[in-house]
Specification:
heterotrimer, A alpha/beta (369), B alpha/beta (247), C alpha/beta (306), A: 369 residues, alpha/beta, abc type-2 transporter like fold, 2 domains, five-stranded mixed sheet, 14 helices, 65% helix, B: 247 residues, Rossmann fold, four-stranded antiparallel sheet, 36% helix
């Protein structure tokens, strides 16, 4: 056991001495948080609005000019026909189309519920959702003013939101769950696989194998420091998300951390698996980046919603562990789901973890070939 | 500068901070000479060679290589010299033929010239049968002989060889030295470092560097006599044992 | 029981034969050398002996234990220094020592006597990172680390490669000292002249063992009269000798050329006449010499080819 302890101490020392990597490891989550955080906050500014005003009365004109007057929107013009809408969006020249039904003012005055249809381009879901929220609040504000001025009966403006291209808006999530997945993959898989292959490359693995250390001890000794580092990073991201960006957290912290540890184990097992196959650090890095990190970013639903992917990719995304982790974390963070609601995803993740561990134990060679 | 001298160094010095890796070395190498450049690990050999081939600017002192000044004419020097080291010589994932063409191209040889020289080179090394084989698949000895020929492709005035024969079998090592003899015979100056002390005896003259300085420089016979030693290895050990530098 | 016993060992990598029918016995407390160029198969053999590779066929036992079946036990008894020095360059000298000591369940203090002659030279650099040591110092540290658990057998793969002549000489002296403490040592090297430091050597080339004997006997196995010839121009001399009708082998050896004749006894005076009169070489000197191990190695290499 003392030889195992010496090994773990050595690992921590080496990680601690590699200052550049250390800065990356701890700096990266913060930098990513800040980048993603601000990218999302600053996007709605002078969004381009086009109106289809079937009513053309004083109420709609007032409402349109109120929207135009806000910092968030700028009304660029108007159209007459519905079939122009899709073309406009496809050209990418418009962020939002507002459709006022005919007889708008009259309906409102009679106490009816005239409709405003808010159509946005949800291929950028975060932006689309923000634009809708802002539009709705301006419309509600307008209505309150209008009522206060004594112009209305019991009715009100009814706002219908429609999104083109990505109606379910699956990735409207907050970016935090995805970010956690990416960072855990990076630290756990990439760093572990690099650190094990470095021993191979430098010839140290030969000595370690020809020593009383058991292969299992070598693996666990390698993995343990990164388990700790990853966990620290989860806490960092969570803290930053809540205090610096005010991301809501509805669910149980305990459950969240448990699920995170499960995901870390999965990623560590993947890292070990890669290192049993790769002969040098370069290969390990390429495999980790291309084989793990890219799918985690692109196919897990972090950036692109899974439902808008081609079927093949949707199918492939089922194999991406981060996909299930994302579902779990979003449910916990946004919906306060208990284990009851996410047991299926947890089970999938658990199965993957055990599978990878079994595979890497089988692939770890007690010899050099 | 003397036209007859291939290399001329005067108080050549290179400092890294306060540390003089090369400390005022002076020597001359004549054209067509085989000059052995020996030294313990960390004595400053690599730094000295880097200055001579124009990769590192000296801190002070003077040096000219092939008649060009190392401070101001490094690019001209590079065109006049060939370089081969044990660590890097040829691209292992290119074939023999591709490597020859690549180096011919780098040194601006014409297509016809490259072809002619390549054929000549392959036949003299008896490597025609492996011309389309990747370098990585060849035995070490063949690689090293080929690397030397490639370094000589553009007919340099001086060829720098950095531990060219490490790990090579004794027969191939000798064939390698015969290549060197031939090059010298044809007027090329050969500047060579080695850890094989018996190889020092192949050189016309040998210098031994200790702690950044050249402690001895003479013909092998002269050195043996001066230090009353049986071979260069004893001379080397006698000189280098006093070293207190640990790289 | 011999510390190392190898019978008819074979090993190939993807069709390339690395070891061909190797058999060798290393006796207790021997300092045994495997001498041969890169690619001869030395590292493959050592990796089989250290249980890092499995042989394709044949038997090998180390300290009486089978290298395949008993690999776990062998691993606790060996001291192994791989081709690269395999130190942790980002750990200090002392940290490397302590690490390897703990891995083998011991401490530097407990085995200080054994490593002291070597490690004492490093003690003033104890806090220096291993990466900042010279080649010779790294070599000494790697040896100390391999010794820290008092192994019965020391396996050193090319311990002197890339290290200067002074460090090499010191290193062999250290090995002699360890041998005097009862440790069996096998070492590989591409430097022929290091053979004389060993009790016995195996000459190895191209996966084959050419000869196993004491260094003196290996040299004596060279069965032809050998001449050393010198002239003002070595290159001319080599060319002329090669075209001499009785020339068998012509190999440069420093300022001399070693020459063997196709006849039982070379005719020295005729040869001298040929070189001076017919070829016009000056300062010709011819003498009969005793072959050394390198002559013998080359001779055996050529026989192996033909």
């Amino acid at each position: 056991m003392s030889s195992f302890r010496a090994f773990v101490i050595k690992e921590f020392k080496q990680i601690y001495r590699d200052k550049r990597t250390l800065v990356v490891l701890f700096g990266m989550p913060m930098i990513m948080m800040i980048l993603f955080g601000y990218a999302i906050r600053n996007e709605v500014e002078n969004a381009q609005v086009v109106v289809l005003d079937a009513s053309q009365d004083e109420v709609t004109r007032q409402l349109i000019s109120k929207i135009d007057a806000s910092n968030y929107f700028s009304v660029e013009g108007s159209i007459q026909r519905y079939d122009e809408i899709e073309t406009l969006f496809q050209q990418g020249s418009v962020d939002e189309v507002l459709i006022f039904e005919a007889d708008f003012a009259r309906k409102l005055k009679r106490g009816g519920q005239p409709a405003v249809n808010v159509i946005t381009d949800a291929s950028n879901p975060n932006l689309a959702q923000l634009i809708q929220q802002y539009s709705s609040s301006i419309i509600i504000d307008f209505q309150q003013q209008w009522s206060a001025n004594g112009g209305t009966g019991p009715g009100g403006i009814s706002t219908h939101a429609n999104m083109l291209f990505n109606p379910q808006l699956e990735s409207v999530n907050l970016f935090v769950p995805g970010l956690i997945a990416v960072i855990l993959m990076l630290i756990s898989s990439l760093m572990t696989s690099i650190s094990i292959t470095r021993e191979k490359e430098m010839g140290n693995m030969e000595i370690l194998l020809v020593s009383p250390l058991r292969p299992m001890q070598i693996i666990i000794g390698k993995v343990l420091p990164y388990l700790v580092l990853s966990f620290v990073n989860v806490l960092t991201i969570l803290a930053l998300a809540q205090w610096a960006f005010g991301v809501p957290f509805q669910g149980s912290y305990g459950l969240f951390l448990l699920e995170s540890v499960l995901f870390i184990f999965m990623a560590l097992a993947l890292g070990v698996l890669i290192s049993t196959k790769a002969e040098d650090q370069q290969t390990a890095m390429m495999v980790s980046l291309a084989g793990l990190l890219l799918p985690t970013v692109l196919l897990s639903g972090f950036i692109f919603p899974i439902s808008s992917m081609p079927m093949v990719l949707q199918w492939i995304s089922n194999l991406i562990p981060a996909r299930w982790f994302l579902v779990i974390v979003r449910s916990i963070m946004l919906k306060d789901s208990g284990l009851l609601f996410i047991w299926k995803e947890t089970l999938i993740l658990l199965a993957m973890t055990l599978g990878f561990i079994a595979l890497s134990i089988r692939s770890f060679k007690v010899r050099l070939e | 500068m003397n036209e007859e001298l291939a290399i001329q160094a005067n108080d050549l010095t290179r400092k890294f901070g306060d540390f003089a890796a090369v400390d005022q070395i002076s020597f001359e190498v004549s054209q067509g000479e085989i000059f052995g450049f020996l030294g313990a690990n960390g004595a400053g050999k690599t730094t000295a060679i880097r200055m001579l081939i124009g990769l590192l600017a000296p801190t002070s002192g003077k040096a000219s290589v092939a008649g060009f000044d190392v401070y101001t004419q490094a690019e001209a020097i590079k065109r006049k010299i060939g370089y081969m080291s044990q660590k890097f010589s040829l691209y292992t994932d290119l074939t023999v033929w591709e490597n020859i063409r690549l180096y011919g191209g780098i040194y601006g040889l014409s297509e016809d010239n490259i072809k002619a020289k390549a054929e000549e080179l392959l036949s003299s090394l008896q490597l025609e049968s492996v011309r389309d084989k990747r370098i990585g698949s060849l035995p070490l000895g063949w690689k090293q002989k080929l690397a030397f020929s490639v370094a000589m492709l553009h007919e340099p005035d001086i060829v720098f060889l950095d531990e060219p024969t490490g790990g090579v079998d004794p027969i191939t090592r000798r064939q390698f030295w015969e290549q060197i003899y031939q090059a010298a015979e044809e007027g090329t100056t050969v500047f060579v470092t080695t850890h094989y002390m018996d190889e020092a005896e192949y050189c016309d003259r040998v210098s031994i560097m200790v702690d950044g300085k050249i402690e001895a420089l003479d013909t092998p016979a002269g050195l043996r006599q001066a230090y009353q030693a049986d071979d260069i290895e004893d001379v080397f050990i006698e000189l280098a044992r006093g070293a207190d530098r640990a790289e | 029981m011999n510390p190392i016993s190898v019978q008819n060992l074979n090993k190939s990598y993807g069709g390339v034969e690395a070891l061909a029918d190797i058999s060798v016995e290393v006796e207790p407390n021997e300092l045994f050398g495997f001498i041969g160029p890169d690619g001869a198969g030395k590292t493959s053999l050592f990796r089989i002996l250290t249980t890092l590779l499995k042989p394709d066929s044949g038997e090998a036992s180390v300290l009486g234990l089978d290298v395949v079946d008993d690999y776990r036990t062998i691993r606790t008894k060996l001291g192994y220094m791989p081709g690269q020095f395999a130190l942790y360059e980002d750990l200090s000298v002392r940290e490397n020592m302590d690490f390897f000591a703990s891995v083998f369940g011991t401490t530097l203090e407990a085995n200080y006597d054994l490593v002291a002659p070597i490690y004492s030279q490093l003690e003033r650099f104890e806090d220096r990172l291993a990466g900042a040591l010279s080649g010779g110092m790294k070599q000494k540290l790697a040896l100390s680390c391999a010794l820290i658990h008092k192994p019965e057998l020391l396996v050193l793969d090319e311990p002197t490669t890339g290290v200067d002549a002074v460090s090499r000489q010191e290193f062999w002296q250290m090995l002699q000292q360890l041998k005097s403490q009862g440790i069996t040592i096998i070492a590989s090297t591409p430097y022929m002249d290091e053979a004389e430091q060993c009790d016995r050597v195996a000459l190895i080339d191209n996966g084959h063992i050419l000869n196993i004997d004491t260094p003196e006997q290996v040299a004596r196995n060279f069965d032809q009269p050998l001449l050393a010839i010198k002239a003002s121009s070595i290159y001319e001399l080599i060319k002329k000798l090669r075209s001499y009708e009785w020339a068998d082998s012509v190999q440069p050896f420093g300022e001399y050329v070693h020459y063997t004749d196709k006849r039982e006894e070379p005719d020295i005076s005729k040869l001298e006449l040929y070189l001076t009169e017919q070829c016009g070489l000056s300062e010709v000197e011819i003498k009969s010499i005793e072959p050394d191990i390198e002559d013998s190695f080359m001779n055996l290499m050529q026989k192996e080819v033909t």
